[in-house]
Amino acid sequence: MSDDIRKKDEMTSVQTHQARPGSTSPNASISRKLRDFYDAVQEEGIPDRFLDLLERLDEAEKNAALTKQVEAK
Amino acid sequence: MIKDKEAESDDRVFKRDLLASLPNLRAFAVSLTGRHDKADDLVQDTIMKAWANQKSFTPGTNMRAWLFTILRNEFYSQMRKRGREVQDSDGLFSERFSVHPEQYGRLDLEDFRKALDKLPDDQREAIVLVGAAGFAYEEAAEICGCAVGTIKSRVSRARTRLQELLGVSGEGDYGPDAGDAAITSRAFGS
Questions:
Q1: Rounded to an integer, what distance in angstroms lies between the CA atom of residue B169 and that of residue B162?
Q2: How does pLDDT run across A16-68, given as a tens digit for each residue?
C-alpha cells in the first residue's frame, strides 16, 4: 500500500486531474506498467557484444596512440 | 606528460560512464524499436558514434542525455532510410524475459510493448523518456529538440492513448491491492 502511495506521489508532478476519487489513478497504472516494462529490459544487463565492442575500441585507440608516439620519436 | 595522464583518466571516466548508461540506453532502444535485435544494432551504432565523438562530450555534463540524443538521432535517420519495419515479432519479445517471468508476467509485458508500439513516435519517446528513463521534462525536451510544453502535451496524449489501448479504466488491474481497490470502488463509488 505504501508503495502505491509512493507511486502516486511521483505522479503528482505529472498530472492527477484524471484520477477519480475512490479509485486507483489510471495514470498510476500506466506509469507502473511502463516502468515494469522498462526495468525488465534494464535488468537484462549489458550483452557481451557491447563489452567486447568497447574493449576493441579501447585497444584500437591505444594502438593508435602508440603509433603516434613512435612516429613522434 | 601530465596532460597525457589527465587525458587517460578522462578516457577511463568516459568509458565507465558509457558502460553505466548502457542498460538504460538499451531499454530506450527497445522501447523505440519494439524489438531486441534492432535495438541492439541501434545501441551498437550509438556506442561507435559516441566513441568517435567523445572529444565533443564535455566531461562533467550529463552523459546519459548526450547518449540518448545520439541514439535518438540515429534511430530517426535509420528510419528515414528504411522506414519503420512492420512488426512481426509477436512472442519474440517475451521470449527474452526469462529473468522473472513469474514476477512480471510475460503476457503483461508483451501486451504493454504492443500498446507502446501503436503510439506515434513522438508520443512514445516522450512518455518513455519522462516516465521510465528518468529524465525531467526539460531534459526530454532538449533530447527531442522541442519545447517543454510540447513534451508535456505528448506525454499526456500518450497516457490517454495507452489507457485506451490497454483498457485501463481506473480500477487498477495491477498489483496485489488492485482487487481490494476495485471492490472498495464498486461498493462506495457511483
A1: 11
A2: 444 444 456 888 889 999 999 999 999 999 999 999 999 999 898 888 888 88
| Structural domain containing residue B71 | 1-82
Grid cell digits, residue A57: 575500441
Which of B33, B100, B119, B159 should one mutate to test binding to chain A, selecting the residue with the greatest count of A CBs within 10 A?
Answer: B159
C-alpha closest to that of A41 among B96, B87, B140: B96
What ipTM was predicted for this assembly? Answer: 0.77
Among the residue ranges A28-37, B49-58, B164-173, the one predicted with the least confidence is B164-173
Which region, left, alpha or beta, applies to residue B135 given φ > 0 means left and ψ of -120 to 50 means alpha?
beta
Alpha-carbon span B153 to B2, nearest angstrom: 50
Please give the DSSP secondary-structure letter assigned to residue B88. -
Best B67, B68, B97 residue to mutate vs chain A (most A CBs within 10 Å):
B97
Flag whether B168 is in a domain.
yes
Based on the structure, what is the number of domains in chain B? 2
Residue B170 falls inside a structural domain: yes
